Fold this protein.
Amino acid sequence: MNRMTMYLATFAFLLPATGAARAHAMLDHASPRVGSTVQSAPGEVSLWFTEKLEPAFSRIEVRGQSGKRVDTGKAVVDTANPAELRIGLKPLSAGTYKVFWHVLSVDTHTTEGIFTFRVAR
Ligand SMILES: [Cu+2]
């Protein structure tokens, strides 16, 4: 491969990859933070994504160690920020909680993920 061919091959490979990555709604950050330990029980879980979400097809489930759901049922997209999704929580006792999210971004791609946080007391 000469230098020009190599350059073009690299460019052709990178373009669609970065385009697709930018289009998907990936988790940017969360509150409580991914993998964190919080000192007191949070009243809600908030997730910030890299893309705007379709509220009707975006959800969060929060479960305790027994697998029982501890969220209040329905995740809502923030009215001022369409890339923020959050859900209320029942009063949490100390322990580890699992947050499962499944979202549809406005470009019609679904993504999902899971993380945990711990309540110290
Ligand atoms: Cu996408």
Summary: The CA atoms of residues 10 and 23 lie 21 Å apart. The domain at 25-119 is CATH 2.60.40.1220 (Immunoglobulin-like). Confidence is low (pLDDT under 50) at residues 13-20. The longest helix spans residues 3-23.
